[in-house]
């Protein structure tokens, strides 16, 4: 998945449970990588495998991609660059599943963070919700906002780390006017896909679409540095 993961567990789980989570993330990376020619997804993309010959998790992700595409008017797609590439949802889905593994092992309070996309469960401590800093896309080492939440998911799509890599699939070109968009909701697979789709829509359509989703809120930073947010974002986040 090409990023760094961190796991913060505030209630007791065994070392074996943590090892299972780490093994899961490595399995996801080797299975879904679009950079490894021998990965399942690479072989599926080349037509060397059919979906029925893939592990059930691959079919599950492809079904989630189709669902996200329908919910976003096609702004989230399985082939944003003309070839199969479900990575826009894989990281969030893998983190969400890692969080579920920890919960099944007995954890009632933890965060799983992959490159800034986070699934939160419980609280840091009594009356202490988790605090997630949102990096400013135009000002290195600065935060644009802090999200304060429990049992929530936070994902950001933007240009700061990988440049203009997100494409508006309807135009075949990167959107104009957005430096980043952060989406907050409950489950990271959907929140991650929503952040990618909202960014691909651009600032006006992306924020309007997020505003219409009952389960999401969003904060956008335009290329001029202006911040804009959905009407309910203030329940989750505070601008710095």
Automatic annotation (TrEMBL):
Stored InterPro entries: ApbE, ApbE-like_sf
Cofactors required: Mg(2+)
GO MF term set: metal ion binding; transferase activity
Keywords noted in UniProt: FAD, Flavoprotein, Magnesium, Metal-binding, Transferase
Enzyme nomenclature, EC number: 2.7.1.180
Residue spans crossing the bilayer: none
Source superkingdom: Bacteria
SUPFAM superfamilies: ApbE-like
Catalytic activity: L-threonyl-[protein] + FAD = FMN-L-threonyl-[protein] + AMP + H(+)
Protein's name according to its UniProt entry: FAD:protein FMN transferase
């Amino acid at each position: 998945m090409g990023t760094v993961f961190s796991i913060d567990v505030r209630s007791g789980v065994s070392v074996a449970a943590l090892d299972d989570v780490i093994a899961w993330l490595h399995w996801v990376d080797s299975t879904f990588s679009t950079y490894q020619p021998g990965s399942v997804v690479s072989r599926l993309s080349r037509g060397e495998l059919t979906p029925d010959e893939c592990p059930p998790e691959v079919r599950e992700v492809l079904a989630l991609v189709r669902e996200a595409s329908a919910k976003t008017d096609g702004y989230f797609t399985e082939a944003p660059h003309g070839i199969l590439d479900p990575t826009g949802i894989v990281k969030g889905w893998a983190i969400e599943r890692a969080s579920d593994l920890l919960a099944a092992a007995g954890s009632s309070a933890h965060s799983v963070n992959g490159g800034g996309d986070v699934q939160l469960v419980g609280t840091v401590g009594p009356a202490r919700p988790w605090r997630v800093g949102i990096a400013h896309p135009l000002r290195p080492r600065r935060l644009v906002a802090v999200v304060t939440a429990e049992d929530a998911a936070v994902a950001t799509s933007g240009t700061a780390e990988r440049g203009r890599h997100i494409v508006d699939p309807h135009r075949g070109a990167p959107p104009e006017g957005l430096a980043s968009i952060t989406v907050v909701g409950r489950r990271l697979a959907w929140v991650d896909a929503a952040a990618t789709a909202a960014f691909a829509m651009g600032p006006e359509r992306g924020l309007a679409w997020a505003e219409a989703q009952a389960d999401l809120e969003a904060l956008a930073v335009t290329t001029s540095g202006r911040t804009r947010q959905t009407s309910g974002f203030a329940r989750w986040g505070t601008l710095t």
